[in-house]
Amino acid sequence: MTVIGRREGDGPALPLGRYRARDGSAGARVRLDCARPHAACVVGKRGSGKSNTLAVLAEGLCGVAGAVPVVVDPMGAFRGLRGAGATVREPRVRADAIPPAEWPGLVGLDATTGSGALVAAAARATGTLAGMCDHVAGSDASPDTCRVAGTRLARAREWDVFDPAGLAAPTEPTVLDLAGVPERAANAVVRAVAAGLYERRVADEGPLPWLLVDEAHAFLGGAARPALDRLLTRGRAPGVSVVLATQRPDALPATAVSQADLLVAHRLTGRADTGAVAGARGAYVDGPVADRIPAGVGEALVFDDATERAHGVRVAERATPHGGGAPRLGTDGYE
Ligand SMILES: Nc1ncnc2c1ncn2[C@@H]1O[C@H](COP(=O)(O)OP(=O)(O)OP(=O)(O)O)[C@@H](O)[C@H]1O
């Protein structure tokens, strides 16, 4: 059986689907290596099957000893993973998981303004959001500066994602249910969890995590970005895998595409999109990449840097129910 993502050796592998011949017929079963850490990007148009692909990987990982899937679920589409043994959580994280210098940006303030500087100072002074609010209230800055900073922090409290006893690095299969959570707040959660997973593995503790991020574009432009970048560039050495799924390949930083060792391309819109995403990996196929990406829902061309090959695959249908229908990330009240 083909195992994508490794050149040789054995060890655990995740069921992915079946080979898809050029004429569209289904062939042998295909699995994806999970014996080593990977960084993967999953791209494709809306409705092309990206979430299903993430769910299939997460389901497989739920059954692998020593591996732990952590799914970032902005739309409530992965709640069904309960059926595979995952815990679905409305996540809370510690306020001090966000570096003080990033607090102004997180609450929509420019760090160079008085109110932005006050928010950063509050974060430096204390590790909790309640403490930050107190710090601002007791500050001798101008009333206007205190009012703006205080209002922003009060809104951040309404997000209800900060808690001194918050989650840092799940050690069991977990779905982070962020449906309806404001995008800035969801970024804070992803930032904290991505950093927590990395730091725990750097300390050589805990199982090997796979952070699976749906709608990744929402996190690549926000506070989660530095932590995701670190996982992409340095996560594999300590054993952290990351999978980013997005319908906006243009939102993927160049590092994401170049650092990934696996690229799963579902149906894309334009030839430009397709060529840009594949980049140098275009050499893995004969002829134009655009002609090789299958058009059917759930079908994909999987580029594997380990073998420098691309595989046409029909991804299996997820076994757990799709838990969608929930709202997308909410608004944060700042815009
Ligand atoms: N491999 C597959 N086999 C069978 N059905 C699939 C497969 N992949 C996706 N589907 C079905 O197609 C629909 C869209 O799939 P999915 O939600 O995974 O797409 P998506 O690319 O994540 O969409 P969006 O960009 O809106 O998040 C769903 O109803 C799903 O069940």
Automatic annotation (TrEMBL):
Residues 38-82 form the Helicase HerA central domain. It comes from the Archaea. Gene3D superfamilies: P-loop containing nucleotide triphosphate hydrolases. It catalyses: ATP + H2O = ADP + phosphate + H(+); Couples ATP hydrolysis with the unwinding of duplex DNA by translocating in the 3'-5' direction. One of its GO terms (molecular function) is 5'-3' DNA helicase activity. Keywords: ATP-binding, Nucleotide-binding. The keyword S-adenosyl-L-methionine does not apply. The keyword Ubl conjugation does not apply. Belongs to the HerA family. PANTHER family: HELICASE MJ1565-RELATED (PTHR42957). This is ATP-binding protein.
